[in-house]
Amino acid sequence: MNYAAADVKKLREETGATFNDCKNALADASSWDEAIKILDAKRDKKAEKMIFADRETKQGGVFSYVHHNHNVGVLLELNCSTDFVARSESFRKLASELALQIAGVAPKYINYEDVPAGVVEEARAKILEEPSMARVPAEKREEVISNKLKKNLGEQVLMMQPWIKDDSVVVADLIRRVIAETGENIVLRRFSRFELGK
Amino acid sequence: MNYAAADVKKLREETGATFNDCKNALADASSWDEAIKILDAKRDKKAEKMIFADRETKQGGVFSYVHHNHNVGVLLELNCSTDFVARSESFRKLASELALQIAGVAPKYINYEDVPAGVVEEARAKILEEPSMARVPAEKREEVISNKLKKNLGEQVLMMQPWIKDDSVVVADLIRRVIAETGENIVLRRFSRFELGK
Q1: For residue B186, what is the DSSP state?
Q2: Per-residue pLDDT reduced to its tens digit, B55-90
Q3: Residue B108 pLDDT
Q4: Which of residues 54 through 93 in chain A touch B, CB cutoff 8 A?
Q5: How many CB atoms lie within 10 A of CB A183?
Q6: Fewer CB within 10 A of the end CB, N or C, for chain A?
Q7: pLDDT tier at A50 (50, 70, 90 boundaries)?
Q8: What region does A186 belong to: left with phi over 0, alpha with psi -120 to 50, or beta?
């Protein structure tokens, strides 16, 4: 598409991508939305590379959030690879957003893989009892069950939860953004959430 | 003993006891140290009454401490009976001292009763192997073992640990003081302690 220098500037502000990436995205795209999609895809690819690079994540920090009335509190450990990133503003902001999300929405698990097999089995049994399942053709059955499972159980999985401050993204996206920005794998290792009297 | 008004004032400042309690303690005691002991005993008795009154402890709050370098953090729930005490300066100060102690000394258990049976058995077996145990008469054996167990395992038990700021008292004493002061049972219900990378 045709674009002006002001467009590059606007795109950089909106996406946080580099000047060159924005210019290339605008040149390749046929619309503004497509340019943003190109940048998103690029960021996801970069983040994925970082995640699978499997670099040791032994740095990072322990962070807490306690609600002002002391009714709920969260403690978490967020890991990255270097002390440099651990001290960065983006990393600390991410830790604080995660703590706030956990305090507000009370997830039970960090990743979908953390849901115990027994809980998955129980949810699967309930899905099979749904009247609508009888109408699903046999060859589609496993796929439908799997999607329903992720939908039902996902509410309890932090990474799959819509972010409380912007439900157009899930929590995993928040982490991916900082991974792309810092060039380091970032992992939420563990969390505790205490609610008064519960 | 003979005492002056200034002594009562000094004793109040030192112990936090009431004017009448200090006056009576000085009158009954034959020395300054004995007066303090009388007040201590009185406070312990009062605290014990509160503890065994078994009033519901459903109020309180969730508190956290994170070390400035984010290497270690603690989350805890401290309970009391009324919202009034939960909001008091003494209660909040106690919560903060407990969090600091847990961060610094890393206890594994809150009370001695929380030590798992398997751990006690293992410690007992080790004690029985000590050469000195052979010289303990049979009728004293259980008492000696019990004392050694409490000494060895007590290091991992928060309530039995010497307070990091004054090792002449144990952590349980800190709580007893606030129980006596507020007239409410106070219970540390749970804690989490995260250390970066551990």
Answers
A1: -
A2: 677 899 999 999 999 999 999 999 999 999 999 999
A3: 97
A4: 58-67, 69-77, 79, 86
A5: 14
A6: C
A7: low
A8: beta
Q: Which residues of B touch A194 (CB under 8 A)?
A: 62, 75-77, 190, 192
Eight-class DSSP state of B2? -
Q: Does A101 touch chain B (CB under 8 A)?
A: no
**Chain A residue at shortest CA distance from B65:** A64
pLDDT score at B45:
78
**Burial state string for A130-160 with b = 16 or more CB within 10 A and e = fewer than 16:** eeeeeeeeeeeeeeebeebbeeebbebbbbb
**Phi, psi dihedral angles at B42 (to 5 degrees):** -60, -40
Whether A100 has its CB under 8 Å from any CB of chain B: the answer is no
Measured in angstroms, the CA of B160 and the nearest CA of chain A are apart by 24
- Enumerate the β-bridge partners of residue B136: none
Q: How many CB pairs under 8 A join A and B?
A: 81
Rounded CA separation A41/A183 (Å)? 15
What is the separation of C-alpha B120 from the centre of its chain, rounded to a whole number of angstroms?
Answer: 21
A196–B66 CB contact, under 8 Å: no
At A189, the pLDDT band (50, 70, 90 cuts) reads very high
DSSP state of B68: T
In whole numbers, what is the pLDDT of chain A averaged over residues? Answer: 91
B124-136 pLDDT, tens digit per residue, is 999 999 998 888 9
Q: Does the pLDDT of residue A56 top 80, yes or no?
A: no
Comparing CB atoms, the residue among B64, B72, B195 nearest residue A73 is B64
Place of tokens 């991974």: A179
Contacts 24+ apart (CB under 8 A), B146-151: B149/B120, B149/B123, B149/B124, B150/B112
pLDDT digits (tens, 9 = 90+) for A14-36: 887 888 888 999 999 998 889 98
Torsions phi, psi for B154 (to 5 deg):
-55, -30
